[in-house]
Design a protein that fits this description.
- The chain is α/β, with parallel strands linked by helices and 233 residues long.
- It is 42% helix and 14% strand.
- The strands form four sheets. It has a three-stranded parallel beta sheet with strand order 1-2-7, sandwiched between helices. It has a two-stranded parallel ribbon with strand order 3-6. Strands 4-9 form a two-stranded parallel sheet.
- Helix 3 crosses helix 7.
- The longest helix is centred in the first third of the chain and has 21 residues.
- It binds uridine-5'-diphosphate (UDP).
- The site of uridine-5'-diphosphate has 13 residues, from helix 3 and strand 4.
- The site of uridine-5'-diphosphate (UDP) has 13 residues, from helix 3 and strand 4.
C-alpha cells in the first residue's frame, strides 16, 4: 500500500517539478471481484478493503486518486492505464502468475496447479500488444487523462488455459486442484471501447500465438539454466 501511494506521490512530485508527463500503470484489480461483465471504466468496482489483496487493489485505487488530484490541482499531464492480465517472454519462471506457472510446470512434467474449480475467468493480453497500447496512451492528448482499460477482451477460464498449455506441450501432466486464494476475482474481461475510440488500439496477438512465443522463451531459459527452474504455486 505504501509503495502504491507514497511511491506514486514521490513520482508525481518529480513529474510536477520537471513538468513531465507521467503514466500510471494501474490495474484491473481496481474492479475487485466485479459484479458486471465486461468491465468498463465507468464501473466503480467491488473491492474488499480488508482482505489480503486489498493492499494492492486499494493501493492502486489510492494512486489513481492522486494522479487525478495532481492533474486537477497542478495541471499535471497524467495518464492512467488499467492493465488487465498480461503475459509473454521475460516473465520470471517463479513469478507465480498463472501463465508462467502452467508453462513451467508442464515443461518440468509437474501437475498444473488449478486454484479452486478453475472456472474463474481471465483475459490474457500479450506483452507486445500492451506495450503498443501504453505508448499510444502516453502520446495521446491531455483530453485522455481519464483511466483507460488496456487488455485483451477474449475471456478464458483457468481450466481452458491449462488445457491449451497441455495441448501445446503434448504433455502427459495432469491437474491438481488447490485452494482458491481469498478474494480471487471470479471473472475478468475488459471493455476496451474507450481505448479503441481514443487510441485506435486493440490487441492483435491471439492467446494461442502468444503462448507459442512464451513457451519458446521458457524452453530456452530452461536449456540455459542447467540447474533447472522450479515453478512456484
Ligand atoms: N491460478 C491458478 N493456478 C496458478 C496460479 C494462478 O489457478 O498456479 C489462478 C488464480 O487463482 C486466478 C487466475 O489463475 O484465478 C489468474 O491468476 P494470476 O495470479 O495470474 O493473476 P490475477 O489473479 O492477479 O488475475
Amino acid at each position: 500500500f505504501r509503495t502504491c501511494v507514497i511511491g506514486s506521490m514521490n513520482m508525481l512530485d518529480l513529474a510536477k517539478n520537471k513538468t513531465a508527463r507521467i503514466l500510471q500503470a494501474s490495474t484491473s484489480e481496481v474492479y475487485g471481484d466485479p459484479r458486471v461483465t465486461p468491465q468498463s471504466e465507468a464501473y466503480l468496482g467491488n473491492v474488499n478493503t480488508c482482505g489480503p489483496r486489498a493492499c494492492y487493489d486499494e493501493g492502486k485505487r489510492g494512486a489513481e486518486t492522486l494522479f487525478h488530484d495532481y492533474a486537477r490541482m497542478f495541471g499535471l499531464s497524467t495518464r492512467t492505464a488499467r492493465i488487465f492480465n498480461t503475459y509473454g517472454p521475460r516473465m520470471a519462471p517463479d513469478d507465480g502468475r498463472v501463465v508462467s506457472n502452467f508453462i513451467v510446470q508442464a515443461l518440468l512434467g509437474e501437475n498444473l496447479t488449478i486454484h479452486g474449480t478453475g472456472l474463474q475467468t481471465r483475459s490474457f493480453c500479450y506483452v507486445d500488444d500492451l506495450v503498443e497500447g501504453l505508448m499510444r496512451l502516453m502520446a495521446a492528448p491531455d483530453t485522455c487523462s481519464a483511466p483507460v482499460n488496456l487488455g485483451n477482451p477474449k475471456e478464458f477460464t483457468v481450466l481452458e488455459l491449462a488445457e491449451l498449455v497441455r495441448q501445446k506441450l503434448g504433455s502427459a501432466v495432469s491437474y491438481v486442484h488447490i485452494d482458491l486464494p481469498t478474494d480471487d476475482p471470479q471473472q475478468r474481461k475488459p471493455d476496451i471501447s474507450r481505448a479503441q475510440a481514443q487510441l485506435g488500439w486493440r490487441p492483435e496477438v491471439s492467446l494461442s500465438v502468444g503462448l507459442d512465443r512464451t513457451i519458446r522463451y521458457f524452453e530456452e531459459q530452461l536449456a540455459i539454466d542447467r540447474t533447472g527452474f522450479r515453478a512456484v504455486a
